[in-house]
Structure formats: C-alpha cells, structure tokens
Amino acid sequence: MGTDQIYEIAGFKVKIVWDLPDGQKFELPGFAPFLSKILSGSVDGTGVGSEVGSEVGSGVAFRNDAHKVLPLNETEDVRFEIVSLEEMQRTPVAKYEQDIEQDMEQDMENDMEKDVWGFDIDNGRCVLSKQDNFYWLRIFDTKGILSLQMEMERGHPGIRTGCRLIHMKRVGTVDKNLSGSIAGTVMVPDPDHLRFALWMGMAFAVIPGMAAPVHASVIIHQGQAVVFLGESGTGKSTHTRLWLHNISGCSLLNDDSPILRFHQPEKAIYIYGSPWSGKGRAYHAEGYPVAAIVRLEQAPANKTHRLHIIKAFAALYPSFPPAYLRDEWLQEAICALISEVLKRVPVFRLECLPDVSAAILIHKKIFGEPTEEALQELPQEPTEEPTKEPPQEAPQEPTEDPPQEAPQEPTEDPPQEAPQDPTEEAKQKIRENLPGILKQDKNEA
Q1: How far is CA 315 from the centre of its chain?
Q2: Calpha distance 195→198 (Å, rounded)
Q3: Facing residues of 260 across strands?
Q4: What is the number of other CB atoms lying within 10 angstroms of the CB of residue 333?
Q5: How many other C-beta atoms are found inside a 10 Å radius of the C-beta of residue 353?
Q6: 253-307, pLDDT tens digit by residue?
Q7: pLDDT tens-place string over residues 90-109
Q8: pLDDT digits (tens, 9 = 90+) for 311-360
Q9: Residue ranges per domain, the chain?
C-alpha cells in the first residue's frame, strides 16, 4: 500500500505517493519542515515536520512563520508517484519511449537537435529528453547504470518516478552492491538521485505558474529578502556569512536553491525557502518579499551599482535551471518571470572583496544609511564608512560615483524608474543581445 505525504513548498501543494515494496522507510533530508501535518494522513505526530505550523479550520493549510500565508488548492499542484524502476518499465506511459531511447544512443554532439540534453551531477549523469508534450529525466550512476527515470507531461500535475532500489540499513548506512533480502535493511531509492529528481520535477511543474528555483543564497533582513546570485565559487555563502556575523537582525533563508515566485493577485515578487539548500542546510518553510537582487563578482576593491534592464536580465538569466533554459516552452515562462521581477525589484552588481566592508556597502545601497544599532561591527576604513560628505568630497570615496556624473548616471535610479515596465523595444534588445551579454558576463545558460 502506498504512503501519501503532502508538503507545502513555496505556496504549492506537493503530494508524494510512495508506492514501493517497503513503503517509505526513510526521510529525505530537508523535507520535514515542509510537511503539512494537517493534510498528510500518514503523519503520526512523532515530530516529523514539527517546525511547520498550521491553522485548523481557517482554510489555510500552512503558515510559514506569518510571512506569507496562502490557501492550498483542493487538488495538489504537483503529484509525485515513486515506484520501483521495474514497475515503471513494466507499464510505460509515453508512446515515444522507444524513439527517445534511440535518440539517447546517438552522439551527444547532436543532442540539441534531437531535443536531448546531458549534464553531470556530483554522483552521476543526467539526460533530459522530450518529444511533443512529454519529457523524461534519466539519472545514471557513476558506473553508467540507470538509477532513476522520471516522466513528465506539460499541463499535467502527475510526475511518475521509477527508482532502482538499493539496500539501506535502518541506521542509515548504504551499500549499493547488496542484493536480495537482508535482515535489518529496507529497499529504497538512491537518496541523492531522488532528491535531485524531485528538484527537477518541482521546477518543471511550477515554472509555467510564474515560479522557479534559482541558484542563490538568500538573507532575510527587516522582513525582506536580499537574493545573492553568482557562479559557483564566487563567494555567495561567504558574503551571506558576513551579513549574519556583522549586521544584526539577519537570518539565512536558503543557501543554494530558493524558489522565486510572482504572486499575480498582489503583483509582488516573493522568495521561499525550499528542501534544497546545499551545504548551508537552511531548510525554512518561509516566504518573504524581495527587497533586492545582487549579482556578486570577485574584485580587488568594493563597488556597486544598480543595473538597468538588459544588464539586469543578463544577471538573472543564468541562475535559473540550465537544462530548462534550453527548452523553448520553459524558457519563455522563465523569461516572463524575469520580466515581472525587473518591473518590481532593483538588481545590483557588487564587485567585492570577501570582507565586511562589502556587506556594509551593499546593505547601505539597499536599505539606506544603517544605524549604530543595526551594525554589530563597523569597518575601520574611512572610505567604507562615509558620513554624508559634502559633494566635493565624493571623489575620495571610490565606492560612490563622482558627483559630476550624477546627472548623467545617478548611483540611485530615480524613483519613477524603479517600477517601470520593460518596453517591447527593450524586450527585443534583450533577445538580440543576450548571447553577447552572457559572454561578456562570463555566464553560460
């Protein structure tokens, strides 16, 4: 008999149905705080999901720490069915299965022409393929053995996932070479492969609904979110730690893959914690309005400025799921989400050193001059701690634009420009110039 569990992730109702021989006998890291205790009939009150609060009888199934409360749909937004790989292979559901298998055997140089893409993950390789409205994700282990297969369809909330089962000791030790029935063990999917597949499936399901995971670290300050973007190794985690250690009232929402969402009724951009948080392991079922987005770059000195539409688009675009940026349908939905973000949220570039001065600089840019109470530690360099100098002293502060340039290129955009919608002409320029912009910024989709 299957075991059903319902989660609240970024305001979406996500059901996972475990239809495995041993049921669901292990806990996926990071998922417990998102478990809805009211809606999951399998929850026994033993503490799983104890960090999640709910309101009974209010029509609200989940409250994320009073920051964003959303009513859940009567039917789930996303439904994952987890079965054994053998069960899935006995009952294929897509009519193009054999054609896709043949495409996968062809040289990877022709993948884009065949609507098949391959990419590596930490402990295996993924292949995403599509034909018409059907998509397949396959994950192979380091030996090239198929570990997981996921089937998705446009406009359909159901996502079927077949997993090769391995033995896991009840204490959590895994031996992938074991086979047969062994006392003290249960048969489970590879946890790492399954967590990544659920991330891909979640992204596939919510992107058409104006939401998407982004590669980012998120700091919460004054009830608002600051989203830090950058390539792996740029220093996102390092920079967020500077905020946590030196600016009071800060907390870490997520350190790897939060979910960015446009709420159409409120015309607001929110960002949510998710069960996928990388090394930071910050699993918080909370959502906050986005105050600013900052793209980080390593540099020999600290300086920052606000980006205008085309550059801001190029700063955001590479942080969305790369495999889905290769698909025309999903790419259009991601670009629509970015367009809504650009209308409502300022985007900055921060060229910085890994020091507290960089955190103070961008904090001031976003929230204004900090008070003494807002800072736990102040930098000693006078150039990084200005006190409203008269205009003639501005050239002594390299992080601020020279006053004589202010009329042409102000460091702060005029208030009337912030909510301005991208025009059709700007959108066309984005499309025409995007490849060159991405190359210039050393980012690849």
Answers
A1: 15
A2: 5
A3: 212, 271
A4: 19
A5: 13
A6: 999 999 999 999 899 999 999 999 988 789 999 999 999 999 999 999 999 999 9
A7: 765 544 455 555 555 554 44
A8: 999 999 999 999 999 999 999 999 999 999 999 999 999 999 999 999 99
A9: 3-208, 211-440
- Per-residue HEC secondary structure of 287-299 comes to EEEEEEEEEEEEC
Residue that has been written with the tokens 């990877």 in this structure? 108
Whole-structure pTM value: 0.74
In angstroms, rounded to a whole number, what is the distance separating the alpha carbons of residues 267 and 99?
43
Pairing assessment for the beta strands 78-84 and 158-163 based on DSSP bridges: parallel
CB 360 within 8 A of CB 250: no
Bridge partners (DSSP) of residue 15 are 6, 79
Sorting pLDDT into bands at 50, 70 and 90, what band is 224?
A: very high
What's the mean pLDDT when you consider all of the chain? 77
Within 10 A of 445 (CB to CB), how many other CB atoms are there? 17
CB 115 within 8 A of CB 131: yes
d(CA 5, CA 18): 8
Q: Both tokens of residue 315? A: 């700063």
Residue closest to 289 by CA, chosen among 318, 254, 263: 263
Q: What is the DSSP letter of 247?
A: B
Q: Name the DSSP letter for residue 28.
A: -
- Domain at 211-440: CATH architecture: Alpha-Beta Complex (3.90)
pLDDT tens sequence across 236-250? 999 999 999 999 999
The count of other CB atoms within 10 Å of the CB of residue 384 is 19
Confirm if 327 and 399 have CB atoms less than 8 A apart: no
DSSP tag of 313: H
